[in-house]
Amino acid sequence: MTLRVVVADDQLLVRTGFRMIIDARDDLEVVGEASDGQEAVRLTRDLAPDVVLMDVRMPVVDGIEATRQIAECGSRARVLVLTTWDVDAHVVDALRAGASGFLLKDIRPAELVDAIRLTARGDALLAPTVLGRVLDRFLRTTPDPAPPPSLKDLSGREREVLTLIGQALSNAEIAERLRLSEATVKNHVTAVLRKLGLRDRVQAVVAAYDHGLVEPRRP
């Protein structure tokens, strides 16, 4: 199956570069390009891509608001946010808006392709240099005005799993920690996402921090 990608960036050279990298792969295809966030939202609705590569700073509607609109409209597209800064407030804003991943624009072509594939599968994706700092900043940022999803429907085991997701542990690591099979952990993760109405693991990380299940490491 070919993964459909929309590239949203206000710089033509950046869009052209991404298109060349993506279209060179047999399983990937750029189906649309947007030069601003408003156009990115429209193309996502019209073209139903699997992944949107979203620049943060764009005219008309910025990448954060465009990501929020895509998430709220019920699109199945997953947004992969790209920026030139390795950590700033935009990281947290993008995740809260519904982004499924966050990468730097200087990523290598092979890593970008892998990132698109991972994001399409629903795996959590953050640049390795960013992940730790992003998680540690969460409780020191302005709280999200929207209340986090209630945890009342989660079982005790599911709360444990959510807490460990918030610590950026993989299913294999969670299985080892809780002495469960990896298949059982996968079922628990699926249940957590379904009960909380979350799109993917990244949003589960956000929920874990919003509920205080995970404390940021102090510098």
UniProtKB/TrEMBL annotation:
Keywords from the UniProt entry: DNA-binding, Phosphoprotein, Transcription, Transcription regulation
Pfam families attached to this UniProt entry: GerE (PF00196), Response_reg (PF00072)
Any GO molecular function: DNA binding
Highest taxon listed in the record's lineage: Bacteria
InterPro entries recorded: CheY-like_superfamily, NreC/VraR/RcsB-like_REC, Sig_transdc_resp-reg_C-effctor, Sig_transdc_resp-reg_receiver, Tscrpt_reg_LuxR_C, WalR-like
Signal peptide region: none
PROSITE patterns in UniProt: HTH_LUXR_2, RESPONSE_REGULATORY
SUPFAM superfamilies in alphabetical order: C-terminal effector domain of the bipartite response regulators, CheY-like
Domain HTH luxR-type span(s) in chain numbering: 147-212
Alphabetical GO biological process terms: phosphorelay signal transduction system; regulation of DNA-templated transcription
Residues with PTM 4-aspartylphosphate: 55
Domain Response regulatory: 4-120
Name of the featured protein: DNA-binding response regulator
